[in-house]
User: Fold this.
Amino acid sequence: MLAAIRAGSTGDLAIIPEPTRLDVIVAHAGAITFRLTVPGRAAHASMRREGVSALDKLEVLQAALVADEARRNAAETDPLMTELGLPYPTIIGKVNGGEWASTVIDRIVAEGRYGVRLGQSARDAEADLRAVIDDACRGDEFLRDHPATVEVTGGRFSSARVPADHPLPVGLADAAEAVLGRRPRLLGEPYGADMRLLVNEGHTPTVMFGPGDPTVIHAADEHVPLDEVVACARVLATWLVRTLAPG
Assistant:
């Protein structure tokens, strides 16, 4: 998609049929994937006080990330995001370290996910993450002289939004209400999505609207109810006719 956008494939409006339970997504957070390399000092277990466990130092950094997550989420005031409870999660999802059961761990590599706030770029979120780790290292006697390193290794998903009163979500909600007999909610989501590319790179007002439950995306039982596929198609057809009708 990004290559197509940079080649000039943009539009006046866009709807991405991601699973949304047939609600209209007008905003989403982002995420970056990071690798944290945490040093320690090896020693035999019988003399463990001579060593410094990288696991203990990971706990120092984890505590800093937990505190940062709480601050960033508490600072959010946009109702679209505060409604989610935890719009900008941070987790460490993978940890590797240690060479032998009787050796103090001298190096741990942890991989995680850091939330990107609404209105924030992935680059700015990376700067926030690095600042949290740097501050935690400066406050620790060992890490001060042997700091952990941070690499951004995978996804760099910026956030994106379209105003809730923009003609696109309003018109789509009108069409959905006419077809479904209920007005869809205008929502924000805590995950990164391709919507960001059309909004931020293509300068194309974009929403997400589609069949299926987003909580089962990428799950073992990922599925989309066929009746929702049909309903979605009818809504989109109605919206197209109304939007493109002369006058």
